Amino acid sequence: MQNFTFQNPTKLLFGKGSIALLSKEIAKTSKVMLTFGSGSVRINGVYDQVIAALAGYNLVEFWGIEPNPKVETLRKAIELGKAEKVDFILAVGGGSTLDGTKLIAAAIPYAGDAWELVLNPKLITKGIPFASVMTLPATGSEMNSGAVISNLATQEKFSFRAYFPQFSVLDPEVTYSLSPYHIACGIADTFVHVMEQYLTSPGQSLLMDRWAEGILMTLTEIAPEIDENPRDYDLMSNYMLCATMALNGFIGMGVSQDWATHMIGHELTALHGLTHGESLAIVLPGTMTVLSEQKKDKILQYGERIWGINKGSSGLRIAETIARTEAFFRSLGLHTRLSELNIGEETIAEIELRFDERDAKFGECQNVNSVVARAILECCL
Ligand code: NZQ
Ligand code: ZN
Q: Could you point out which of 119, 154, 370, 376 has its C-alpha 20 to 30 Å from the C-alpha of 31?
């Protein structure tokens, strides 16, 4: 096991009715900015619950943080936050609203342009405290310090590390209004977050392996049940907690990590607007195929423990394991091939060029460069 330092300061308030607890967590004297997406929270009643819980507070609202939040939109929120001198921000929405809020919180006290903080997070010296009411289980953003921001002008999408939410409210009942597509993307995103931290080489940490496999097994078990019954409180509770636990640092202690699938997926989103979870469902089987020699032992472990694949030569078992992984994503109703979305050589060439220009070296062996990224994408056609 590698040396590591672990600290996660985010407090979780989990369960039905938890939104009502907001006033216990935010000082009454605060000037609070509420940040929202495009309006799902008005339809499902979450907005009303938040406003009721914060009755008597001095509130400012910012609406319109879009999926794959754009710095162009966030600059407007930063301007509003500066003008109103807000000193606390509550994000109410999915990962995009929360990620956008992480940049808003960091940029309000910053004199320069917000995009500079995305490109160089070391410039973040102080920031405004923020918290979330998370409405879409997927990103883990509710309990991590990461955020992914897009730039419309340059068609770029970059992740950066800011700081953690002070607390996050997770009420599984707010997920009842999610579309089947967003649930599918959320499950795929959660699954791939685990795979990025798990599918490297075996024997680094027995405990991390078992925790990671626990999340993967839970997801494969509940996914078909959620499809049947997306308003089952216990199912949605498990899904929600899987998403949080998959990317809050708990399964990544002392082990190497990959993240190449995410880096390639972000390019597909930047260029074509693909929903994040679906981009990963397309790329992961390609990554597993191209890096199957390097990841051989872990793919065999994963295949046996998650899918019960334990017969035949190692080559056959690896092929079957990759096929089962893709079939799982397809069972969620997601596309798993670029050609299904009319994405082809032009995009592959552009991503290859971008990786080249940035001298990209992703993956646990730092060997996913432009050439390997091309090979992965060609596998995804
Ligand atoms: O905009 P609103 O009206 O809120 O509607 C949203 C949006 O259209 C809707 N939605 C959210 N909760 C809902 C709901 N609709 C009905 N009922 C609810 N309860 O769902 C749509 C998608 O929302 P979005 O926030 O974009 O989805 P998600 O949570 O998957 O976030 C995706 C973003 O997070 C980034 C992705 O790259 C992408 O930009 N990621 C962030 C990470 C992190 N911070 O650690 C890690 C991830 O790997 C990921 O990259
Ligand atoms: Zn993700």
A: 119
